[in-house]
UniProtKB/TrEMBL annotation:
<dbReference type="InterPro" id="IPR011990">
    <property type="entry name" value="TPR-like_helical_dom_sf"/>
</dbReference>
<keyword id="KW-1003">Cell membrane</keyword>
<dbReference type="GO" id="GO:0005886">
    <property type="term" value="C:plasma membrane"/>
</dbReference>
<comment type="similarity">
    <text>Belongs to the YfgM family.</text>
</comment>
<dbReference type="InterPro" id="IPR018704">
    <property type="entry name" value="SecYEG/CpoB_TPR"/>
</dbReference>
<dbReference type="InterPro" id="IPR026039">
    <property type="entry name" value="YfgM"/>
</dbReference>
<feature type="domain" description="Ancillary SecYEG translocon subunit/Cell division coordinator CpoB TPR">
    <location>
        <begin position="15"/>
        <end position="207"/>
    </location>
</feature>
<keyword id="KW-1133">Transmembrane helix</keyword>
<keyword id="KW-0812">Transmembrane</keyword>
<feature type="transmembrane region" description="Helical">
    <location>
        <begin position="24"/>
        <end position="42"/>
    </location>
</feature>
<protein>
    <recommendedName>
        <fullName>Ancillary SecYEG translocon subunit</fullName>
    </recommendedName>
</protein>
<keyword id="KW-0143">Chaperone</keyword>
<dbReference type="Pfam" id="PF09976">
    <property type="entry name" value="TPR_21"/>
</dbReference>
<keyword id="KW-0472">Membrane</keyword>
<dbReference type="GO" id="GO:0044877">
    <property type="term" value="F:protein-containing complex binding"/>
</dbReference>
Length: 217
């Protein structure tokens, strides 16, 4: 290590160091300030966008509550186009499907849920969309398509929804009069402890139906 005997020597050494390194040091400080400023600006922009999307979604909920289906559709479209990076875009897709069901346009509702199931950012929203789509298939008699849609669900991404899928599978099998497979599906849902309040009644109905079909000798 170099040792300086006088204060003047220390000052001269500092000047030499600054002449050599000062430019790059200033550039580094400026770059850091730009990065910090840019990050803060981006965070502020994202928060503003989220707030705007939230306000739009609140308007959508109010329109849905008042039965204003055209307004629901317009606001949902706006959220999808302008705020697709926010969760409110996906929520709007669910509300749009619900509005279409209320208008009796089940095919449009299916299309909305299909799109959401494919494009949602979270597994939770994808599962919600898939389950609602299967329920529509049950309502429209597309039983095989509903079973296929359940089978296509990734087991690693359905945590917390397994009971709902099994119960829906049971409902589809009942509609197809495949009671043995329906009972197996209902029992699987029941073992998970997360089925609907009607699950046990559905299972009991199957047992009663089987007794009627196959009375004891």
């Amino acid at each position: 290590m170099e040792i300086y005997e006088t204060e003047e020597q220390q000052v001269e050494a500092l000047k030499r160091w600054w002449k050599t390194n000062g430019g790059s040091m200033i550039a580094g400080v400026v770059a850091a300030l730009v990065l910090v400023g840019g990050w803060n600006f981006w965070r502020s922009y994202q928060q503003d966008k989220l707030n705007q999307a939230s306000a739009q979604y609140q308007q959508l909920l109010e329109a849905a509550e008042q039965g204003k289906h055209q307004s629901v559709e317009k606001i949902a479209e706006r959220l999808s186009e302008q705020y697709d990076s926010t969760p409110y875009s996906a929520f709007a897709g669910l509300m749009l499907a619900k509005s279409k069901v209320e208008q009796g346009d089940l095919e449009a509702a299916k299309a909305s849920l299909q799109q959401l199931m494919q494009n949602a950012d979270s597994d939770e929203l994808k599962n919600v969309a898939r389950i609602r789509l299967v329920r529509l298939m049950l309502a429209t008699g597309d039983y095989e398509a509903g079973l296929k849609l359940i089978a296509e669900a990734d087991p690693t991404a359905t945590e917390g929804f397994g009971a709902s899928y099994q119960e829906l599978k049971g409902d589809l099998y009942v509609a197809m009069e495949r009671l043995g497979e329906a009972r197996t599906a209902y029992q699987s849902a029941l073992r998970s402890g997360q089925g609907s309040p009607l699950l046990q009644f559905k299972l009991d109905d199957i047992s009663a139906a089987e007794i009627v079909e196959n009375p004891a000798p």
